[in-house]
Amino acid sequence: MKSLFMGAALAVLTLTLCAAFTLAPDLAYAFSGPEAAIGTGLAMTCAPLLNHRARGLVAIRNDGGNANAILAELQKTFETFKEANNKEIADLKKGLGDVVQTEKVDRINAEITKLQNAIDETNVMLAALKVGGAGGAVDPDKKAHATAFDRFFRKGVDAGLSDLEVKAKLTTQSDPDGGYLVPEEMETTVDRVLGTVSAMRSLARIMSISTDTYKKLVGMGGAGSGWVGEEESRPETDSPTLRELIFNTGEIYANPAATQKMLDDARVDVAQWLADEVAIEFAEQEGAAFVSGNGVNKPRGILAYDTVANASYAWGKLGYIASGVAAALTDGTHNGSDAMIDLYYALKSGYRNGASWLLSDAVMGTVRKFKDGDGNYLWAPPTAAAEVATILQKPVYTDDNMSAIGANAFPIAFGNFQRGYLIIDRMGVRVLRDPYTNKPYVHFYTTKRVGGGVQNFEAIKLLKVAAS
């Protein structure tokens, strides 16, 4: 069996392919059945070569060619999965349920998840190639600030840095006690990396502000309108109802450490190093908050709002569709696909253009088995390496911060997140240099202020695990 793995892998084995599998360190798992040569031959032979924390920045000089090979394996494995799953369903209907067949389906299903993650990881790395300066003319004040910040970062010398922050228009007043603002290019690098590793950040609308709070007036509907002729009088119409949404920012931090020897090495790109170190920490904290944060000194997540059955939808709450089963998505009379289709159409047609699904990998494995009344699977693999999988022909993204399947849980969201969820970034990433607390290491206490919340309650719908 090992020779099968090696034979399938040798044709496509490159360093960049191994990097693509860094997302799933357990890819060395081997199947025990004949399906081992499908998918696993490509995915299982590469040991993780990269530090997971550095994904998206280290060894990303990938032309993307190998993603096509992974995609081909994914599509082939999905066909095998459909055959195995269809056989399991047919056997169950005949009263011939076989635990071996069930385990086979689950193994292939798990392999599909790993291959999909490998493609997603490759796309993340390719997106990270765009991280960096945009070129063009360089503002001399910003260049001077970047040079001074580099000196401060490496040596702790901050002479004149406060004044340069103001000259570079990074702030109107400097506060060294709260840390120094990183150069604009470094902040852009951090933000771009965050966008490649955070599902919600890649889907939602993002706005930068210079204060701690953003307020937005939202029309509740009710403004009257009508048709009139060119010379006819215009009767007075009803005034629209407005409501104010307030988005507060909370402080997120990371505290990476470096040796002075590393900082003294002029070959080390400190901007990239800092972005690499803090971006994953920020992304993990942000990702959890955008889904389930309570809004206290952090963003308010989509699952932290009041909910209501979609038939009784009211503004200020997120509408949901029930799975029809008290503690699961399926049972003997509910196939799961009906609830997914109902959720799809619960979203108004105006929002469905640009809508996507959000759920965890584990829930994805369950949904992948769902078929419609004509026997077509709701889930489909990508049709191109740069694309994502779909459910009902809408893109699907995974975020393991989403709920697991359980009674009264909300494991699946479907919506136009660009219109429905707003992420607020307060401009400015600050760094405090600390060479004293943990000698001989130099710590860089790095902070960023982020907020977020639902801005349009019609644009996001949830699936609730409940009988009704």
Automatic annotation (TrEMBL):
Subcellular location, record wording: Virion
Domain Phage capsid-like C-terminal per the UniProt entry, residue ranges: 178-464
NCBIfam families (alphabetical): major_cap_HK97 (TIGR01554)
Organism name: Mesorhizobium sp. WSM2240
Keyword Metal-binding: no
InterPro entries: Phage_capsid (IPR024455), Phage_capsid-like_C (IPR054612)
Chief site of localization: virion
Keywords from the named record: Signal
Lineage start: Bacteria, Pseudomonadati, Pseudomonadota, Alphaproteobacteria, Hyphomicrobiales
Signal peptide: 1-24
Name of protein: Phage major capsid protein
